[in-house]
Amino acid sequence: MFALVYASRVIKRTIVASALVLGSMAAAAPVYASPYSGPPSLSVDDPETTPNQPITVTFTGFAPGETINVTNTCGDATMVTANGSGEASLRVNAPNTPGDCTVTGTGATSSRTDSAAFTVASLAPIPATGSDSSNLLLRSAQALGLGVVLVGITLIRRRRNSPA
After folding, report:
1. Fewest Cβ atoms closer than 10 Å to its Cβ: which of 41, 96, 160, 164?
2. Same domain, 53 and 89
3. Which residues pair with 70 in a beta bridge?
4. Cα separation, 37 vs 87, whole angstroms
5. How many Å apart are CA 148 and CA 153, to the nearest integer?
6. Which domain holds residue 3?
């Protein structure tokens, strides 16, 4: 009986020791931090702009130092490199013509991708301000015509009254 109790204690101690060793190994296993600061995200500073205006596109959630391939449905493709926080920004010009545009960023190594849209609004016609100048032009033409008539009458009178 003593041998059985002793063997039981040894087995219990072995199980406890094994559990402690395995638990400490699991706790000591390296934990790798994700290189990403969150899901990828693109944003534009002005979602509704006018032709030829600069727009800032901000990229977040990419790996630090990762090259981000940028496509623009209304412009040229380009690349930008994420900083140490996985963020980058890029200025693009809105096109000359009105319409909807989409900028897409794709991580070259992670393949993480996101898009942001902006709208190029048409320029509003310039409102008429001030007064109508056609009246002024008409009055000026009338004054000029009256002046020509008066000069003509004066010349005719002088010729009639002058001794020959």
Report:
1. 164
2. yes
3. 78, 105
4. 9
5. 9
6. 1-31
